[in-house]
Design a protein that fits this description.
Helices cover 33% and strands 30% of the residues. By secondary structure, it is an alpha+beta fold. The longest helix is centred in the last third of the chain and has 28 residues. The N and C termini lie far apart (39 Å). Bound molecules: zinc ion.
Length: 177
């Protein structure tokens, strides 16, 4: 199986607009299996194909506690949205950064499954937020685009400081052993 690697901000390939999928073959099924595998391994809730350098409109997710209810959506589109909700988000492509942003509360999703069959569902809570986050990836958008540059700089500085402290702590521990 092809080994996928998650692209990380500020990689420009995360900014591409992904292409619609018209062929529902084994290759697509393999890509979605592969994406689910890496998502579970990295303990992510969702993953979009462009994050693994495949600029096609495919997203996978699992919002269940037991991590055994994979969801796959091809060519996902939000057709209606209602309400606003505050959402604390992170992203496998933006390591360590977490921030509150605003999302739509309830959405209607239209998509296709891996066979090309149409799916329509209403979502709220984490499912709604995750779908919105992953569709943003398909349009080259990241959750940090919703906050100001100044706030992003501040968050990145904080993370750099924490990482440095963690490194020093690890070195200290190494010497003790
Ligand atoms: Zn993400």
């Amino acid at each position: 199986m092809e080994k996928l690697k998650i692209l990380e901000f500020p990689d420009k390939r995360l900014r591409r607009v992904s292409e619609s999928i018209g062929v529902f073959d084994q290759k697509l099924k393999k890509l979605s299996d592969n994406m689910l595998m890496i998502m579970y391994k990295e303990r992510g809730v969702g993953l979009a194909a462009p994050q693994v350098n495949k600029p096609v409109r495919l997203i996978v997710m699992d919002i269940s506690e037991d991590r055994n209810e994979p969801l796959v959506f091809v060519n996902p589109v939000v057709s209606t949205y209602e309400g606003k909700v505050e959402s604390n988000e992170g992203c496998l492509s933006v390591p360590d950064i977490k921030t509150d942003i605003k999302r739509h509360e309830t959405i209607t999703l239209n998509a296709q499954d891996l066979e090309g069959t149409a799916i329509s569902l209403e979502a709220d809570g984490l499912l709604s937020i995750c779908i919105q986050h992953e569709i943003d990836h398909l349009d080259g958008k990241l959750f940090i685009d919703y906050i100001s540059d100044i706030k992003l700089q501040r968050l990145r500085k904080k993370v750099a400081k924490q990482n440095k402290a963690a490194r020093i702590e690890r070195q200290k521990n190494t010497r003790l052993i």
